[in-house]
Structures are given as C-alpha cells and as structure tokens.
Design brief:
The chain is mainly α and about 100 residues long. It has a domain at about 40-90. About 45% of the residues lie in helices and about 10% in strands. The chain contains five helices and two strands; from the N terminus they run H-E-E-H-H-H-H. The longest helix has 13 residues, at about 40-50. It is elongated, with a radius of gyration of 18 Å.
Length: about 100
C-alpha cells in the first residue's frame, strides 16, 4: 500500500478529484492556465452551446471553449477569428458533434 493510500484510509476518504483548475501531469498536480473571455465571447460561446443542445451554463465558458476546440470546430486561440468569419460559422452547422 502506498503512503497516500494510508492517508486516505486514515481520513476515511473514499473518493476525491481535482477541480477543473488543476490536472495531473506526470504524477504531479499542475495548475491549468485559464483563458479570460470578454462579454461578447462569453455570450457567443453560451449561445453556440445552447444551439447545439449542450447542457452548459453561461459561467462554464472555458469548458464550452475546450469542448468546441476538442471537437475541432475552431482552433485553439482562434475564437475571435471564428466569431468574425460567417463562412466558418455556417460550415459548423454541417458537422455532427
């Protein structure tokens, strides 16, 4: 049994997880860099998630952003370009999530 298993057993912890601000990386906990969104980007991301029927809240802008980047709807750090490109926005609707 590992040392941290003893600690969990003594504290009676059954399950734990990191919040979305941290990740495990090579057996270490690292803080995730957060991206600040302006009001237009927040409302755009939330409206896109609602249009696709996703169950996000407006305060989850980073989660929405990461979801769309993972789905290759737009590239990392290219949100403002995507917002201004009507052709790219139109092409998104032809894709399935």
């Amino acid at each position: 049994m590992k040392f941290n298993d003893y600690i969990f057993e003594d504290l009676k912890l059954l399950k734990w997880e990191l919040n979305s601000s941290y990740l495990f990386e090579k057996n270490k906990v690292v803080k995730v860099e957060t991206k600040k969104f302006n009001k237009d980007e927040i409302s755009f991301l939330f409206s896109m998630s609602s249009a696709f029927g996703l169950n996000f809240e407006e305060k989850d802008s980073l989660k929405i952003y990461n979801f769309f980047v993972d789905q290759n709807l737009f590239q990392l750090d290219k949100l403002s370009e995507f917002m201004s490109d009507s052709k790219a926005r139109k092409n998104v609707w032809e894709r399935k999530l």
